[in-house]
Specification:
The protein has 310 residues and is of the alpha/beta class. It folds into two domains: 2-23 and 187-273, no CATH class; 35-185 and 274-309, Rossmann fold (3-Layer(aba) Sandwich), CATH 3.40.50.150. The chain has helices spanning 2-6, 20-29, 36-54, 72-85, 97-110, 131-135, 157-168, 187-193, 200-216, 277-286, and strands at residues 10-11, 60-66, 88-94, 114-120, 141-147, 176-182, 225-232, 237-244, 248-252, 257-261, 266-273, 289-296, 302-309. The strands form three sheets. Strands 4-3-2-5-6-13-12 form a seven-stranded mixed β-sheet, sandwiched between helices. The protein has a four-stranded mixed β-sheet with strand order 1-11-8-7. Helix 2 (20-29) runs antiparallel to helix 9 (200-216) and helix 3 (36-54) runs parallel beside helix 4 (72-85). The structure holds N,N-dimethyl-L-histidine (AVI). Residues 2-307 form the Histidine-specific methyltransferase SAM-dependent domain.
């Protein structure tokens, strides 16, 4: 945070969004009429879960997921896996222990034949911190990793590639990765999805300032910032910013940092990359996968890629 707020352009890491209130606001975003992302992916998984699971190859399937989230879309795949083999072990990786425990309770109660094994891990920093739990392969185990929701789009491309390579290192040839990626589309549709009429995305973006005030004692005045969503054509991404409405100085005691913001200067809080099929395929190839199959929603706005480790 010190580096991001003292440098230019000012920035904050998007993982800071997800305190309890931020997670609640993100869930609300997924239900907004403008935020098509979650609905489009759910449409694909609803129509093709059995085909996706059939593409996982032979063997006793175990499903791993990076970022367990609320698990509602994952349930469609877990149920398909149970239709295939009677039961399934789901090993969910997430940075939040409480989110994992809650997901375990809820999913095991809802789906007969499911065992959830939580793995507390910040996968964005590599998987070596949980190597002990991942290296042990049960005999006959066939692995499928899920990385859905287009979370891959929230990373700069070199970091995205590194995450895919970290996953590949946990797999043997024939194992698979199911990757969800949001696709390039009309810029007005994208801008509306990240700047909705009800202001939920604006509240989500500004909540990071509330969090910093609470946890680091700073005095950000939310009235003096405006949510901005911009389309960066060159880098094919939506950027979220918080724009300072006046020239102001904010003090963050825990960092002993004064942040001087000019009027209209922005703090860059998130990137959400939008991909073409070719870009997704190229990332997957460079990480050691080949794309076995891909699906889109009816509008062609979201892509789901079944990639097999080579
Ligand atoms: C979590 N991630 C895929 C979301 C996205 O669309 O990039 C986060 C988000 N930011 C604003 N709205 C949703």
């Amino acid at each position: 945070m010190l580096r991001g707020l003292s440098g230019r352009p000012r920035s904050l890491s998007p993982w800071l969004f997800y305190d309890d209130e931020g997670s609640r606001l993100f869930e609300a975003i997924t239900e907004l009429p403008e935020y098509y992302v979650t609905r489009a992916e759910r449409e694909i998984l609803t129509s093709h879960a059995d085909e996706i699971i059939a593409g996982a190859g032979s063997g006793d399937l175990t499903i791993y997921e990076l970022g367990a989230g609320s698990g509602s879309k994952t349930g469609l795949l877990l149920e398909a896996a149970i239709r295939r083999q009677g039961s399934i072990t789901y090993r969910a990786l997430d940075v939040s222990k409480s989110a994992l425990e809650e997901a375990k309770q809820r999913l095991e109660a809802a789906i007969t034949g499911l065992t959830v094994e939580p793995i507390v891990s910040d996968y964005t920093d590599g998987l070596s911190n949980v190597a002990g739990q991942l290296n042990h392969r049960k005999s006959g185990e066939r692995r499928m990793f899920l990385y859905i929701g287009s979370s891959i789009g929230n990373f700069e491309l070199p970091h995205a590639l590194q995450i895919l390579r970290d996953v590949r290192a946990q797999l043997i040839p024939g194992d698979s990765l199911l990757l969800g990626a949001d696709l390039v589309k009309d810029r007005q549709i994208l801008l509306r999805a990240y700047d909705d009429a009800a202001g939920v995305t604006a509240a989500f973006n500004k909540n990071v300032l509330t969090r910093i005030n609470r946890e680091l004692g700073s005095n950000f005045n939310l009235q003096l910032f405006r949510h901005r969503a911009k389309w960066n054509e060159e880098l094919s991404r939506i950027e979220m910013h918080l724009e300072s409405l006046i020239t102001q100085i904010v003090f963050i005691p825990a960092l002993d940092l004064q942040v001087r913001l000019a009027r209209a200067e922005t703090i860059h809080t998130e990137n959400s990359h939008k991909f073409t099929d070719q870009q997704v395929e190229s990332l997957l190839h460079r990480a050691g996968f080949s794309v076995a199959k891909q699906w889109k929603d009816d509008l062609g706005w979201f892509g789901e890629y079944l990639a097999v480790a080579v």
